Amino acid sequence: MSKELTKAQPPPPQRRKAKGPRPKHVPQRTCVACRSTDAKRTLIRLVRTPEGSVEVDPTGKRAGRGAYLCAWVRCWERGINEKTLVRALRLDGLTEQNRADLLRYADERVPEGPEDTEEEAQG
Which of 116, 113, 110, 83 lies closest to 98 in space, CA to CA? Predict the structure, then answer.
């Protein structure tokens, strides 16, 4: 009797599991003014309420359509004045009260950008 010898295929290489804990997923969001992407916690969320007004959402969990802005005054001014925020929140327009409240929040709590302070020092 003749036995045919068949070549056995080598076993597939085994994947090595990474050692240590798995890195935590960090949600990413985009600023509606400058289009830069950053971690959700570093951006400031604005929400359109069911009544149609726009408010700052510090927790990031309020109900309503949301949009994010960087923590720089130039992004806030651009988002409010160039209507990028209005477009992102799908509004007809900001009321004067909403515009004043958002600009006041930006003046009180949002730092100036690094480029803004250099321009003021030179000017």
Answer: 83
Q: What is the pLDDT of residues 13-53, one digit of tens each?
A: 777 776 788 888 999 999 999 999 999 999 999 999 999 89
Distances (CA, A) of 97 to 49, 88, 114: 14, 19, 29
Give CATH superfamily name and number for 28-114: YlxR-like (3.30.1230.10)
d(CA 78, CA 86): 11
Q: Assess contact for 59 and 24: CB atoms under 8 A.
A: no
Return the domain boundaries, the chain.
Answer: 28-114
